[in-house]
């Protein structure tokens, strides 16, 4: 297997680990334009995804700090058992978010949780002038056609979001974030609860390497069309 750092020498993970999430993504998009439309784009996108993985997302009140996903293994069985109460409960705890992210990577659908995290970071912007560059980076990374980490959104949600990018508000991505949240809650979350990774945490064991599986298509945004956006996390 080719060394990813040889393919993307402009990305230095150790140097960028303390940068805000959107700056890391913006740099990657700028250096690798239109890759999704070229031959071999799937393989290159997977390599880019590997380089941009940010396994630890919390640092106090901030999201986007890099770390080690295996820290999720230190969670107690009692704490892990509480994650079955609700999807909200799982995402509200750092160890739960880390474990769920690790699970999504085995299904090659980590763009969903990365988008959700990017939206959370976006809403924490301290000033209005931060919104525009962050909004453009999130849009180019996750929403526009052939984006390197394009999430599955219905046409209406994508259009509404696109129209507000020029003058973004803190609520610009609320509808899209709510849609992706519902997809994860209805599709990925139940599989996570039945996964070997989660069972190992319930038994107090460090999770082993989970087998990779093809991306599930059992749920799509069409299953939730007509539902009123209600992002409550």
Automatic annotation (TrEMBL):
Keyword set includes Transmembrane: no
Which organism is this protein's natural source?
Pycnonotus jocosus (Red-whiskered bulbul)
Alphabetical list of SUPFAM superfamilies matching this protein: Regulator of G-protein signaling, RGS
InterPro entries named in the record:
RGS (IPR016137), RGS_sf (IPR036305), RGS_subdom1/3 (IPR024066), RGS_subdomain_2 (IPR044926)
Q: What is this protein called?
A: RGS18 protein
One GO term (biological process): negative regulation of signal transduction
Extract the SMART domains matched here: RGS
The RGS domain, residue ranges: 86-202
Q: Which Pfam families match?
A: RGS
Keywords for this protein: Signal transduction inhibitor
């Amino acid at each position: 297997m080719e060394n990813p750092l040889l393919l993307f020498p402009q990305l230095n993970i150790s140097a960028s680990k303390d940068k805000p999430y959107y700056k890391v993504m913006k740099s990657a998009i700028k250096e690798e334009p239109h890759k999704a439309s070229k031959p071999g784009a799937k393989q290159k996108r997977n390599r880019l995804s590997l380089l941009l993985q940010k396994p630890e997302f919390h640092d106090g009140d901030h999201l986007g700090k890099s770390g080690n996903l295996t820290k999720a293994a230190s969670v107690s069985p009692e704490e892990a058992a509480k994650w079955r109460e609700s999807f909200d409960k799982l995402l509200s705890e750092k160890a739960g978010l880390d474990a769920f992210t690790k699970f999504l990577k085995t299904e090659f659908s980590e763009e969903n949780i990365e988008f959700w995290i990017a939206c959370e970071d976006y809403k924490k912007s301290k000033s209005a002038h931060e919104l525009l560059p962050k909004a453009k980076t999130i849009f180019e990374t996750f929403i526009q056609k052939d984006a390197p980490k394009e999430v599955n959104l219905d046409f209406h949600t994508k259009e509404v979001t696109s129209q507000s990018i020029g003058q973004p508000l803190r609520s610009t991505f609320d509808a899209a974030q709510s849609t992706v949240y519902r997809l994860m809650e209805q599709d990925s979350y139940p599989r996570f609860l039945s996964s070997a990774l989660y069972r190992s945490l319930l038994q107090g064991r460090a999770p082993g390497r989970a087998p990779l599986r093809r991306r599930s298509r059992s749920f799509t945004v069409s299953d939730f069309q007509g539902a009123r956006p209600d992002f409550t996390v």
